[in-house]
Specification:
14 helices; seven-stranded mixed sheet; 2 domains; alpha/beta; four-stranded antiparallel sheet; binds pyridoxal-5'-phosphate; Aspartate Aminotransferase, domain 1; Aspartate Aminotransferase, domain 2
Length: 403
């Protein structure tokens, strides 16, 4: 007797998805980026650095050098913590900015997005509370949601989270951490002043709160004075995880970020990272370290920031005509984003499809909010397009909103 072979079905049905994959919806950022890929669309939506300002020659030279001089190393597996030369260079940059750091304090990550997801996996149990700003960076909300954590918004104002409300919520919710983007925040572009940072650090020290300070934009300042990291304030030094990234100052395609954290937490993140991707691509790390050694990244960033400042001005110059009377907007001193609020009767999520028909795109504000969304808000990225295209894009936006 022969045993019948199982007959393969023509179309295999999916294995059941894990609850965390079922419960978290798709990313609105990704859906919107799909629309804006059409070249005729003037893109105020995606958070894309200006591609014409990438130092492609300098980066190419760095890759050529490491591939010519240490090919066996550049193309080999590396340690999970990261290449020593890059960790040392990152530590030196942080130390130079007032935060004494050793190479060993740094874990290199595959973009700072990975740092968020490592922290979420290492720290959060289902039901744990995480405090955030509202509005908040979308993909951080997503990383926290995947763990089943409860995301709770801290009330705030134009200067960031309110320290009094923060203290109350810490006592009430017993959160694992506060996630904040204190400099040129995504999505609002706002910056937390030094006194507010000191107050947040004092709350953290007093109530034993852990802070995650995410700073991908801080170097892109075109106006005003640099504000020290929260991590450098008394009380926060030993309870802050500082995240950084080369995405906005070198190029996002490198996928290079980092995390500075106290030893035990850093080690936990390294174990999680091992399971995620073993390590961040060696050749990218060595090329970035080589770039930092051979070139002047700060001079490059200063040039980029100058151009971004011109683009912010171009956007500010056209907003009053583009947005309906009664709208308000911020005036960011750096970074990439500007946040606007239209009169209450406008719903920017509903309006988006109509506006995109005019070949211009923004991101509606609602998904950035935790809890009750402010539906009349929107995020505009002012760096991807030239001043001429910004002017034209705002004219189209005005037509789309008026139609
Ligand atoms: C606040 C914030 N954090 C983290 C990231 C992730 O950046 P990357 O993974 O490219 O370093 C972004 C990207 O837009 C961001 O806006």
């Amino acid at each position: 007797m022969t045993v019948a072979e199982p007959v393969p079905s023509r179309s295999a049905s999916l294995p059941p998805l894990a609850a965390r994959a079922r419960s978290v919806g798709g990313s609105p950022v990704r859906d919107i980026l799909a629309v804006t890929a059409r070249p005729e669309v003037i893109n105020f939506a995606g958070g894309l650095p200006a591609p014409e300002l990438f130092d492609a020659d300098g980066i190419a030279a760095a890759y050529r050098a490491v591939l010519a001089e240490v090919p066996g190393r550049a193309l080999q597996y590396s340690t999970t913590e990261g290449e020593p030369s890059l960790r040392a260079a990152l530590a030196a940059r942080m130390s130079a900015r007032g935060l004494p750091t050793d190479a060993d304090d740094v874990l290199v990550t595959t973009g700072s997005q990975q740092a968020l997801s490592l922290l979420a996996t290492a720290l959060l149990e289902p039901g744990d509370a995480v405090l955030v700003e509202s509005p908040c960076y979308l993909a951080a909300l997503q990383a926290f949601a995947f763990t089943g954590a409860r995301v709770v918004a801290v009330p705030g104002d134009a200067d960031g989270v309110d320290p009094g409300a923060l203290a109350e919520l810490v006592l009430k919710e017993r959160p694992k951490l506060l996630y904040t983007v204190p400099t040129f925040q995504n999505p609002t572009g706002r910056t937390m002043p030094a006194e507010r940072r000191a107050a947040v650090a004092a709350v953290a020290a007093r109530y034993g709160l852990w802070l995650v300070e995410d700073d991908p934009y801080g170097e892109l300042r075109f106006e005003g004075e640099r504000v020290p990291w929260i991590a450098a304030h008394p009380g926060a030094e030993d309870r802050t995880v500082l995240l950084g990234s080369f995405s906005k100052v070198m190029a996002p395609g490198l996928r290079l970020g980092w995390l500075r954290a106290p030893a035990e937490l850093r080690r936990a993140c390294a174990v999680v990272k091992q399971a995620a991707d073993l390590h961040t691509p060696t050749v990218n790390q060595l090329a970035a370290a080589r770039y930092l050694a051979d070139r002047d990244l700060d001079a490059h960033v200063a040039r980029v920031a100058h151009v971004y400042g011109e683009r912010r001005d171009a956007m500010l110059a056209g907003l009053a005509d583009a947005l309906p009377p009664g709208s308000t907007w911020g005036r960011p001193e750096g970074g990439m984003f500007l946040w606007a609020r239209l009169p209450d009767t406008y719903d920017t999520t509903e309006l988006l499809a109509r506006v995109v028909r005019q070949d211009v795109a923004y991101v509606p504000g609602a998904p950035f909010h935790v809890g009750d969304p402010d539906r009349s808000t929107l995020r505009l990225c002012f760096v991807t397009e030239t001043p001429e295209r910004i002017g034209e894009g705002l004219a189209r936006l005005g037509r789309g909103l008026r139609d």
